[in-house]
Specification:
Length: 276
Amino acid sequence: MAVDLGTFGIWQPASLLDVHRAAEAERLGYGTVWIGGSPPADLGLAEELLDATSTITVATGIVNIWQADPHTVASSYHRIAEKHAGRFLLGVGIGHPEATRQYQKPYDTVVNYLDRLDDEGVPVEDRALAALGPRMLRLAAERTAGAHPYLTTPAHTRRAREIMGPRALVAPEHKVVLDTDVERARTVGRQAIGDSYLQLTNYATNVRRLGYSDADLAAGGSDQLIDALVLHGDTATVARKLGEHVTAGADHVCVQVLGDDRWDGYRSLATALTSD
């Protein structure tokens, strides 16, 4: 792929990102800043973060294709690529049926959107696709640089690599809580995903594919499921567990630190993730 993401990056909602955070992530040695949520089609924040830094890559995780007109997205991509060649990855995705009234034929809709990006000259190697299931993972490998799976585990990463082959990008996101108090960490994890993400069809279906049951999805998520989806422990333990994605076949891991001290977490993880 054309864009160098590095091995580890930070993933945060757009509301928690600014030029100072991006510059700090660059100083800490992270390869990429992922703009979470559904960034608007003008890609203004991505451009601001790139303007304020010199080496770090910026990626969208992800532009929602129901909300962002492909012509506008493509024009924004070209504006950014002209200024910051090789430093921007356009992540796009279909979102969730619960969040989009017009949600229908998701696979065909994604294909049509990628066709429009082709027509507008957005290079395959500069875009990625949010993908969880086998069909969408194969599409990501065929029509983009690769996949950006969200709310997954190393087991999913291994499966994605098998499906997508050796050359496609696999860049999973993983949430972490830097806390050695297990119950406190699980509480943070449940608050983050239990009453929101685990209730969404796409994520619930993917969790079941990984071998979890309806009982694991109930009541905010079982301890086993929360521990798998939200890593916790001291810095060394969390860094080791994040590295399991790389062992499983990931090219890049998007780290989403949760909690009030998330930026302190990124600072301490930076050393641990590069210590080898």
